[in-house]
Specification:
By secondary structure, the chain is an alpha+beta fold. 24% of the residues lie in helices and 29% in strands.
C-alpha cells in the first residue's frame, strides 16, 4: 500500500489494491491505476466516511476525474442503506430523477434505490447508465449491503479505452456511429416485470399512470411512443453513440449498443431489433460480439465486500453485473444530471460531449464543462 499524494496537510485515506487492477498511461507520462481503491488510514482511526468525504471532496473529485472509479473499502461507518444515503449526500451532487431508464428499481431510503433487480442467474451487459436517453447521471454510486455468496462481481471498464480499440479495429463502423448515432427500441408493459433485466413498465418509467403525462415526459426526452393494447413501444433516437469528454479531452464509447443487442431480451423484446444504426439499418453482429470481447478483456471485475462503496464517473466508465448465487444486495444512487436540449442528427462535428452527432447547441450540465458548436461555454 502507498499513501496518495494530497495538497492538504492530513491524509485520511490509504490507497489499496485489487487483484485485477489495470494500469494505463494517461497521456502526460503519468500512470493511471484503475480503479482507485481507498481504505481508512490507520494513523487516524476509522473515521466516519461521510465526514471524511466532506473534508476531502475536492481531492476525491480530482481522483475521480483522473481514474474514473473509486472503491471505498473497510469503513465500518457504512453498513446500512441509511449510512449509504448519508455518504452519497455528503458529496452534495444534484439529484437525478430516474425517468427513462430500463432497469426495474425500488426506492429504499432517501436517494438510494435497488440496483437492477433482474434474476440472479442473468448477466447484465456492459453499459453507461441511461446512455440510451439524453438525460443521464454523471455520477453513479453502488453500495454492498449484503455480499454475494458466489459471483455477483461488478465489472467496470474505461470507456475511452473501448473507443480507441474499436476505432483501431473497425474504423468505418465507428465513423458511421459518429455520423448516424443509434436508435433504441423497447416494448414496455404497464407494470414492472421482475423476471426481465429490462422489465421496467411504462408506469414506473415515466412515473405516472396517465398516458398523456407519459407521452409528455417521453417527448421531453425526445422519445416517441406507440401505444398498444397491453403496453407501449418506445423509440429513442437517433442519439449519439460516441461523445467527447471535455474534461478528459477524449472520445468515449458512450452507448448501450452491446447491452441492448445482447441483453434486451424478454417476452416483449427481441434484442437484435432493440438497437440499430441511426438510419434504421441493422448492426453487424460480428462487430457487436467483438466489442463485447474487448469490454470483457479490458474490464476489472470488482468483487463485493459488505460495506463497499463504489463511485463511478458515468461518462468515463461502463459497468456490468455477473450472475451470482444469493444472497446479494447491492444498492445504487444516481446523481448530477446532464441534459441534452434537443435530440437528433447534426451535420458536421458537434463540440462539447457529443462527437459528430447529437445535441443541438445548448446543453445543461452539473459538474462538467460543455461547449456548444460555436465553442461557447453553455450553462443553461
Amino acid at each position: 500500500m502507498r499513501l496518495l499524494e494530497l495538497t492538504m496537510p492530513e491524509n485520511l485515506f490509504v490507497e489499496s489494491e485489487l487483484l485485477q487492477q489495470k494500469k494505463y498511461n494517461d497521456g502526460d507520462g503519468a500512470g493511471i491505476v484503475f480503479p482507485t481503491v481507498l481504505i481508512p488510514n490507520p494513523k487516524f482511526g476509522d473515521r466516519n466516511l461521510k465526514d471524511v468525504i466532506r473534508d476531502q471532496k475536492p481531492w476525491l473529485e480530482s481522483v475521480l476525474h483522473k481514474t474514473g472509479a473509486i472503491l471505498f473499502r473497510g469503513f465500518s461507518s457504512v453498513s446500512s442503506a441509511s449510512d449509504f444515503n448519508d455518504v452519497v449526500e455528503a458529496f452534495d451532487y444534484e439529484e437525478l430523477p430516474y425517468v427513462g431508464g430500463a432497469a426495474p428499481r425500488t426506492n429504499v431510503v432517501g436517494r438510494v434505490f435497488t440496483s437492477n433487480e433482474s434474476p440472479p442467474d442473468q448477466k447484465i451487459p456492459f453499459h453507461h447508465e441511461m446512455a440510451q436517453v439524453p438525460t443521464f447521471p454523471l455520477k453513479v454510486f453502488f453500495f454492498c449491503e449484503v455480499e454475494p455468496k458466489i459471483g455477483g462481481e461488478t465489472p467496470i471498464v474505461l470507456s475511452h479505452v473501448v473507443y480507441d480499440k474499436m476505432k483501431q479495429k473497425y474504423p468505418e463502423f465507428v465513423d458511421r456511429l459518429e455520423k448516424q448515432g443509434l436508435i433504441y427500441t423497447r416494448v414496455l408493459g404497464e407494470d414492472d416485470d421482475p423476471s426481465s433485466p429490462i422489465g421496467r413498465g411504462w408506469v414506473s418509467t415515466f412515473l405516472t399512470k396517465d398516458k398523456a403525462v407519459a407521452a409528455e415526459r417521453a417527448a421531453k426526452l425526445g422519445m416517441k411512443l406507440e401505444w398498444t393494447d397491453d403496453g407501449v413501444k418506445t423509440v429513442m433516437g437517433p442519439i449519439p453513440a460516441i461523445k467527447f469528454n471535455e474534461t478528459s479531452q477524449r472520445k468515449i464509447w458512450f452507448n448501450s449498443m452491446v447491452a441492448a443487442y445482447t441483453g434486451w431480451e424478454d417476452a416483449r423484446n427481441d434484442p437484435v431489433k432493440a438497437v440499430t444504426f441511426g438510419d434504421g439499418t441493422p448492426l453487424p453482429a460480428h462487430v457487436i460480439h467483438d466489442c463485447l470481447k474487448i469490454l470483457e478483456e479490458e474490464s476489472v471485475a470488482v468483487p463485493w465486500q459488505k460495506g463497499d462503496v463504489l463511485l463511478l464517473d458515468n461518462l468515463a466508465v461502463l459497468h456490468a453485473r455477473r450472475p451470482f448465487e444469493p444472497p446479494r444486495r447491492v444498492l445504487a444512487s444516481l446523481w448530477s444530471t446532464f441534459e441534452v436540449v434537443g435530440v437528433g442528427c447534426n451535420a458536421g462535428h458537434s463540440a462539447g460531449h457529443s462527437g459528430g452527432l447529437g445535441a443541438h447547441p445548448g446543453t445543461r450540465v452539473s459538474g462538467y464543462m460543455l461547449k456548444d458548436e460555436g465553442g461557447r461555454v453553455n450553462t443553461k
